[in-house]
Amino acid sequence: MHKLILITGASRGIGAATALLAASQGYSVIVNYKSQKDKAIHLTEQIRNCGGNAWTIQADISCPEQVIHMFNEIDSLGILKALVNNAGVVDLQTSFVDVKPERLQRIFNTNVIGAMLCAQQAIRRMSTRHGGTGGSIINVSSSSVITGSPNVYVDYAASKGALDVFTRGLAKEVAQEGIRVNAVRPGFISTDIHADTGNTERFNNADKIIPLGRCGNTEEIAEAILWLISEKASYCAGSFLNLTGGL
């Protein structure tokens, strides 16, 4: 049976970089996507052309029924050993007083509830208490939990703060069931998601405010994620890696 890793929101950015690196390290990769089918298919073809195994599965992780369907599909492909909760959404830069309820619901439904739903299904397959052989869950958080992102996206930062609390609590809950739960907190990383905020100037000027003098790249975040999954991080549980260039 294949040793599987599920990466949510893997069609671009950090998710895509993690998928490529995981495949190079011997994982069979489940590329989850919500709407960017062409990019997801292209990514799986890249992996297969390099001799790896990869499949695409469409699912909106904010929908419980779709999450269940996705994991049922995964069961036919192999043994799930790792989950990377990477899928996340942001919105236009704005003051919090102007944020509409629909935006709050959309951000929390994906960034928090979606990650929880995926973790729940993964635990049922990985946990030694449920007959599994153990595994690893990595939550992709954000350095915004440290700054709070005032006048930018306080709601997004709050959703990632909730994800951090979930990471810490879940790590303690399932540690003795063979599952390690950890998180990464990327800072200024060069990805397409910044266009969703409507303000790319913050990132164009990153060299002036980041001690290392540049934005990070997706491959650097992927390396951290795969390290946390690996046996090299066997004593890491409930830990957070701040990948911020020194901020």
Automatic annotation (TrEMBL):
Superkingdom assignment: Bacteria
One Pfam family, short name: adh_short_C2
Classification via CDD domains: SDR_c
Keyword Protein biosynthesis assigned: no
Keywords: Oxidoreductase
Alphabetized GO MF terms: oxidoreductase activity, acting on CH-OH group of donors
Listed PROSITE patterns: ADH_SHORT (PS00061)
Family according to the record: Belongs to the short-chain dehydrogenases/reductases (SDR) family.
Protein name per its UniProtKB record: SDR family oxidoreductase
Originating species: Zooshikella ganghwensis
Lineage: Bacteria, Pseudomonadati, Pseudomonadota, Gammaproteobacteria, Oceanospirillales
